[in-house]
Amino acid sequence: DAGVIQSPRHEVTEMGQEVTLRCKPISGHNSLFWYRQTMMRGLELLIYFNNNVPIDDSGMPEDRFSAKMPNASFSTLKIQPSEPRDSAVYFCASKSQLGGELFFGEGSRLTVL
Amino acid sequence: KQEVTQIPAALSVPEGENLVLNCSFTDSAIYNLQWFRQDPGKGLTSLLLIQSSQREQTSGRLNASLDKSSGRSTLYIAASQPGDSATYLCEVNGQNFVFGPGTRLSVLP
To answer: How many other CB atoms sit within 10 Å of the CB of residue B51?
Structure first.
């Protein structure tokens, strides 16, 4: 299996622009997680899905952030409008079931100027 | 709300030493605990997953233990090597999914 695939790997954008990050989980995995990592706050869970349904989005920082999972093989995290404080590495991860082993993608490094 | 801490924050050891990394959590009602390593600029790589019913798991030179009642897990690395240099994080899976801040390990040749 190719593992969790994220795109883009790097994104540089200007404040106010819309950013869309994409994730393809491991085939057969039912749970998908979006994390944000910064030096100051470490790894923070933003939202997770189980069987394509959002279960807990309490970590989504503001209404500017939204996430969707239209099918079992694809998810997006959108920031609109983006701000410099959104600069971070965004990770997607998946597991076969909520009690299973978590596998991470390589991350999307976002820089908002 | 679950809180996870890791001690020490950073550790530097000479090659060949055995070492222990610690992970503590406040809510013992967990399903499992997972240890990861993260190399600079990379994603997280799973090392060991311990279910709440287990006391320890082993993989090669790594051994992880879990004591739910005391809210502690340890990751033991035997005969450390320079290639073990990375940040090690624990993730506690209970009512929510919480990562510790990590321990940055440097193994000197």
So the answer is: 14
